[in-house]
Design the sequence.
């Protein structure tokens, strides 16, 4: 099984800040990585797949990068509506594995 | 527009069987996509349960494999989850979702509580 580790588990930043979330795989997964956003009380929403490809209608302040074992999700110009928990998920092979999540809050 | 909707009992007794159905609209279940179940215990993260193809091929999370069955009913455009021998640890919001690799459409989720 591939283990996905996200860091930090939570962070607090100011509106307008640039925020970087990290996801690490226990073995190489190429770019088979997705990022989801789950705002409080809602369904997870797919933001990014193939490590860096934005889903349609996702604001351009979100970006993803990485390959192999280390990945990042960056939110430039953090907005109040970005308060959420962000999960990474690998799809290199079944079973699919999610990271534990990073909770993003506004200072 | 693709929509998924979970249905089934919200309360299951310990040692019983949890059964949920996901009804798909706006897309045919008889295609290239796979159809997934994901759960989220209250206040915790996401756990992938398993998936089925339109032909009934399945993959399961090894941690649940001995208790899980996922099946598909193409005539109703539905797929289903059965989880046997449940305990309080299986209390969670259960989501159905579409995706071969990443999950692009999700149901609203249904909270299933295991309690006597």
Sequence:
């Amino acid at each position: 099984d591939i283990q996905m580790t996200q860091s930090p588990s939570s962070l607090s930043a100011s509106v307008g800040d640039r925020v970087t979330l990290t996801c690490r795989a226990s073995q190489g997964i190429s770019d088979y990585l997705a990022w989801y956003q789950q705002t409080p009380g809602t369904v997870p929403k797919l933001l990014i797949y193939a490590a860096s490809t934005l889903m349609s209608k996702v604001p351009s302040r979100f970006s993803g990068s990485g390959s192999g074992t280390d990945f990042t999700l960056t939110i430039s110009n953090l907005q109040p509506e970005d308060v959420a928990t962000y999960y990474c998920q690998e799809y290199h092979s079944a079973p699919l594995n999610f990271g534990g999540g990073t909770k993003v809050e506004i200072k | 527009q693709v929509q998924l909707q979970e249905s089934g009992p919200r309360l299951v007794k310990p040692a019983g069987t949890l059964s949920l159905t996901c009804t798909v609209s706006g897309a045919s279940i008889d295609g290239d996509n796979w159809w997934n179940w994901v759960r989220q215990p209250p206040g915790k993260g996401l756990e992938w349960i398993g998936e089925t193809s339109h032909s009934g091929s399945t993959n399961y999370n090894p941690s649940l494999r001995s208790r899980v069955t996922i099946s598909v009913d193409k005539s109703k455009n539905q797929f289903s989850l059965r989880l046997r021998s449940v305990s309080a640890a299986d209390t969670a919001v259960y989501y159905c979702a579409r995706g071969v690799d990443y999950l692009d459409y999700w149901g609203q989720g249904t909270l299933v509580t295991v309690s006597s």
The mean pLDDT of chain B is 96.
